[in-house]
Design goal:
The structure is a homodimer. By secondary structure, chain A is an alpha/beta fold. Chain A has 16 helices and 17 strands. Chains A and B meet through helix 15 and helix 16 of A and helix 15 and helix 16 of B.
């Protein structure tokens, strides 16, 4: 058994407060997972990650990318080092993605067959092959607490026919992923250390922007009986209303007693919204990538609107994905405001990024200093900005968990 | 009065254990000061700097560069922010250099007259002018506890005539620096906050590689009666024996009751050696710059020699200054070994950098992980490598202070 999931209080809208028991610890859900692509959350030391966020509880679970780690330093090396937890000295729960999304977004010269994907590394052009079985083999070597079935991601927009074919491939690959996992899960590097416990495997729902395909994909995944279910292929350029709609339609199908994970989202208001809809897990590079580009999040003051000047940096720096524009992210009543720290108006601003934030950066450093670090391209700027943005995201989830815990609509405890 | 210096135990060789009382705190000497060029010790958060080194005492004093800060963000901005301590949130003692060394090593199209130096910024080509009076004005605006008289640095090698002329200019500039400082020192941004205390001003001894000029320069500086004395223009490409000789000849002249500071040195064995000779303060970019290039220091095992493979990275990465070569730095019996972390032999090495080191990096991370971060160009690599190398330097000074404190050759307390 790779996980146990307890669902506590739930809201009428479907949001629920839960606890996810994994070999490396317990995760309070809904949870936001910082992304540690190459076995490091970029520019942030592990000891800092353990301490940021509400009550200094730190990030309870982080993600690492299978594609990146298999290319460098190689999953066999990480297996010999005892798995990714020991390799990077992170003792809390982790999740690895399937490699699918990166193969389709980063790698060159992809050739997809029913068997798998042949591609060339974006690092050195070397040829590699990923199949469901290979993705499982790699993820077992890495040894994260949660691993993902291998999936295909379609380009956006995609025709219904193309989306349907791709979804069918994902379903076939999910079945093969599960089969390989079941017969090899005792090969995880920490199998002995954690006597008898194993990794968990999640299936990924695809189906593009077609609600009926999403439903069909969710039904097929549920039939295969995974430990948890992810909703993939979202936040790839579609309008936010479509993302929300696809999530809502899929959640209707997914069983309430399993963790539900939306991959690669989102802005602060979005992660809060999805958590209130019943999503238990999310991850996104946005807080850390934005931080490295000088975009910082802070709480909005009552009635405050997002200024274009503060938001526009996102397009400049390419952190929004193709198809999105910064205007699309300007919400009429945002709870979070984006600051472009390079703006001259911050040059002598002695306030912290967010006066209501209790993170180590807001407790110590001014906007003026952070602007200076950014303008001087000092590496400390990326570190401090990332710490704040991550703390901001963790704080949002802590507040949503508080809201949900106070809910009396549905007090139930389901054990899985 | 800008400082008080108490000299405690001293050794026969001239080394002494002291305490330097400055407006922002007390510094135990001999001290190594990490370099925070642009008001940040590159890639290391201030809260980490406060905790590394023996007993978690942290760096007691750091340096910032006048030249860099006046170009960006500008000394007037820093004055308005309350001085460099408040600007960067560093509450402990600081020192600023005069800007002289950077004007001569980084700036373009320099034109030196008796009045000062006209030059173009290495950042944007803008024209600037530094005179002794301007360097003082800038350093008072920055408000470090210790500031340096403006000096000229000669190229190496330089003829006796050229060295002599340059030294005379440095002496004239030192007198003008002192005069400006005495009449403007109450303008420091924290004058009121620290009621009545002011900055300290050190003179800089020059004289190139000519022992008699070094002596003459030291005598002239002592006549001018500075709060402390620096030995400048060393470690610019000359052999280590010459550096040592110049320091020894100069220390003979400098008064025993004032702090003595050698600028811009050195390797671990060198800073220990100079401290044992009677140098009280040193600074160098070497630990942090080497760290960013993957060069890490560790304690040598008994009889261990430096391998060429581990040292050669220094030349590759240009961290040795012109005229030096890595072979010149290979000591027959080094107490510190340099590791080139990118070497493949570290790829699966599960040991910490230095098993005898108690720094946060050695307590948590393996060589294998640090090599991975370096090879993947992950920013965390620069941070962790810098933390370790700085802790290594601070530990060396703590050990030398311990040696000196145990000395009974000369127990005296001089108050200045």
């Amino acid at each position: 058994m790779g996980l146990r999931f307890e669902v506590g209080a739930a809201s009428e809208a479907g949001g629920r407060r839960g606890s996810l028991y994994l070999p490396h610890g317990v995760v309070q859900t809904p949870v936001f997972m910082p992304v540690g692509t190459a076995a490091t959350v970029k520019a942030v030391p592990q000891e800092t990650l353990e301490q940021i966020g509400a009550d200094g509880a730190g990030a309870e679970m982080i993600l690492a990318n299978t594609y990146h780690l298999t290319l460098r330093p190689g999953h066999e090396l990480i297996r010999r080092m005892g798995g990714v937890h020991r390799f990077m000295s992170w003792r809390r729960p982790m999740l690895t993605d399937s490699g699918g999304f990166q193969v389709f977004s980063l790698a060159k010269l992809r050739k997809v067959t029913e068997d798998g994907v042949e591609f060339r590394s974006h690092l050195d052009g070397d040829k590699h092959f990923f199949s469901p079985e290979h993705s499982m083999e790699v993820q077992i070597a890495l040894g994260a607490d949660v691993m993902m079935a291998f999936d295909e991601c379609v380009e956006t927009p995609a025709t219904r026919e193309r989306t349907c074919d791709s979804m069918s491939l994902t379903h076939a690959w999910a079945a093969r992923s599960k089969e390989y996992f079941e017969t090899h899960k005792d090969e995880v590097p920490w199998a002995e250390e954690f006597g008898g416990s194993s990794q968990a495997l999640f299936g990924i729902v695809q189906g593009g922007m077609y609600p009926d395909l999403r439903r069909e994909s969710a039904e097929r995944m549920v039939e295969m009986d995974f430990d948890g279910y992810a909703i993939g292929g979202l936040a790839v350029g579609e309008p936010p209303e479509v993302t929300r709609e696809m999530i809502a339609r899929t959640l209707e199908i997914l069983p309430r007693d399993r963790p539900r994970y939306v991959m690669g989202v989102g802005y602060p208001d979005q992660i809060a919204e999805y958590a209130r809809m019943g999503v238990d897990m999310m991850d996104c590079v946005l807080p850390t990538r934005a931080a490295r580009h000088g975009l910082l999040f802070r709480r909005a003051e009552p009635g405050e609107r997002q200024t274009v000047e503060d938001a526009i940096g996102e397009e400049e720096t390419g952190i929004v994905r193709s198809g999105e524009s910064w205007t699309g992210n300007i919400n009429a009543n945002p709870s979070a405001i984006r600051m472009n720290i390079k703006r001259v108006e911050y040059a002598e601003d002695q306030r912290p990024i967010d006066p209501a934030c209790d993170c180590p950066v807001c407790r110590r450093y001014t906007r003026a200093y952070l602007r200076h670090l950014f303008m001087a391209r000092e590496p400390l700027g990326a570190t401090l900005n990332s710490i704040h943005n991550l703390a901001f995201y963790l704080d949002i989830m802590e507040r949503v968990r508080g809201e949900l815990a106070g809910n009396s609509f549905c007090q139930s405890t389901n054990l899985y």
